[in-house]
Amino acid sequence: MENVKRIIAVASGKGGVGKSTTAVNLALALKAKGHSVGLLDADIYGPSIGLMLGVAEGTKPNVHEGNNFEPIIAHGLQTMSMAYLVTDKTPMVWRGPMASGALQQILNQTRWDNLDYLVIDMPPGTGDIQLTLAQKAKVDGAVIVTTPQDLALLDAQKGIEMFQKVKVPVLGIVENMAVHVCSQCGHEEHIFGQQGGQKLADKYEATILGQLPLDINIRTETDNGIPTVAASTNSKNRDHYLSMADNVIAELANIDNDDGPVITFS
Ligand SMILES: Nc1ncnc2c1ncn2[C@@H]1O[C@H](COP(=O)(O)OP(=O)(O)OP(=O)(O)O)[C@@H](O)[C@H]1O
């Protein structure tokens, strides 16, 4: 991990709010700004970044001396995922306990090649695995993803408090699916409520790093293995992700972290 300058955890309390979509596009946006970027899929229950980045099913990382894994390159990102190590047929019941062991292994044994940023797609929730990761991993800062819905906000709050407990600075909040714009008539509808992310940000004196609409293009682009930032050179959504990356870089610059990021597991 001495080859990694900055580590950013992307987390959400609630599942399905768009955490992985955000992590993948944030990583691509940092890359588009000229940085060297890695993406670690630590979402052991539903590893999805390989699919989102169009990595062919069954692709396995090369293993080097000392059991070190070589990251798989996708859209210019260095990536590592649980999905590269388990198969669809791996039963969930086996996957749970085995997966947390495997997670430690990929944290310790992936050979990142000089990264400016490593983005970690955290497992959803605030249970033991998340706490251990947040505690043991020397993450520079956390990005909290939520929808404006009360239920998601409540869980996002738990996520913020978990990071505060383990002294990982929260860089800010991403409000995903903030508004739906009808592709036919342009009518705007706040399907998951309004201003929820802002209220959460106000409560914790956190920054809103970005607001993304609920947009069919974001879903289809990701499903096609070419996420929004890679799919288009000129779209509003891509611009949202690029300015999110700027905000993340700015927040990181505000953090005084002279130890340097190192992930250690005892
Ligand atoms: N802004 C958006 N607009 C439209 N669809 C979106 C948006 N963000 C995410 N999605 C879609 O919502 C679904 C869930 O997103 P994603 O997998 O990123 O969520 P997650 O929080 O990581 O979920 P999990 O808890 O399962 O890991 C995906 O189908 C994704 O394409």
UniProtKB/TrEMBL annotation:
Tagged with keyword Iron-sulfur: yes
Alphabetical list of Pfam families matching this protein: ParA
InterPro entries reported for this sequence: Mrp-like_CS (IPR000808), Mrp/NBP35_ATP-bd (IPR019591), NUBPL-like (IPR044304), P-loop_NTPase (IPR027417), YlxH/NBP35 (IPR033756)
Annotated residues for binding of ATP: G13, K14, G15, G16, V17, G18, K19, S20
Keyword Hydrolase in annotation: yes
Keywords on record: ATP-binding, Hydrolase, Iron, Iron-sulfur, Metal-binding, Nucleotide-binding
UniProt family annotation: Belongs to the Mrp/NBP35 ATP-binding proteins family.
Described function: Binds and transfers iron-sulfur (Fe-S) clusters to target apoproteins. Can hydrolyze ATP.
PANTHER family xref list: IRON-SULFUR PROTEIN NUBPL
Quaternary structure and interacting proteins, as annotated: Homodimer.
NCBIfam families: PRK11670.1
Protein name: Iron-sulfur cluster carrier protein
Species per Swiss-Prot/TrEMBL record: Reinekea marina
Record gene name: apbC
